[in-house]
Design a protein that fits this description.
279 residues; 1% strand; globular; 14 helices; mainly alpha
Length: 279
Amino acid sequence: MTPLRPRVRRIPLNIAATVTVVVCLFPVYWMISTAFTPSRDIQSADPRLVPRAWTLDHFRRAVGAEGFELFWRNSVLVTLGAVLLSLLVALGAAFAVARMRWRGRRQFMLMVFIAQMAPWESLIIPIYIISRDTDMLDRLPTLTLVYFMITLPFTIVVLRGFIGTIPPELEEAARVDGCTRTGAFRRVALPLLVPGLMATSLFGFITAWNEFAYANFLIIKEQDNRTLPVWLSSFQNTFGTDWGATMAASTLFALPALVIFLLLQRHVSAGFAAGAVKG
């Protein structure tokens, strides 16, 4: 009887885990299945979990929609620019906080935590006014800077914790061998930071890739500067919403983040775990 007790105790946990997975994945499954379902079945009064028939017409309509390639390029440029800029600035800030002793270090981290907890949606109007007064509306660099601002606090916090797990003696040994502080960090610590960099870059990529509110409010007149989240609203017209094409476009939109996550999954798990060890 004793060996069965742990299994019995795990049954509620397994049930809870199964329900959680189903609840989280069902909307994704419904989106993908709708993307492959013919329009007549989508509008049917008798919906089915498994489509009666399959079609690729919605994907053809989504890919052939006006601005698909242009908006895809805009999203890639803005997202990659924000992620690279955030990693570059956060790496220097995290190293300064974790390795150096200077006045105001605790206050600086407190401000970073406050910025991380702040709801960025509440800053849409101030950022819009600043962008308007500085003639920065309808420009992709403005979106890049906004996404950089959103992802920077989290990147600093994670990288600071990750750098804190690397023994400083490794860098000191490299400096004894003749390396400068920058050279010791680049040759010794930076290779060990790869999981942390992967984790923070994935977070920044998903945040910037999926962001809609700022892209919709800061790019008003120049339609060619819009990004993919705004492009998804183009399947609405006076006759309603083309749900098949919308779901197909949403599936295509979600693919890059999914592929990157699957490729970096091991590094991401290790990065978040190590970054949470020290704070």
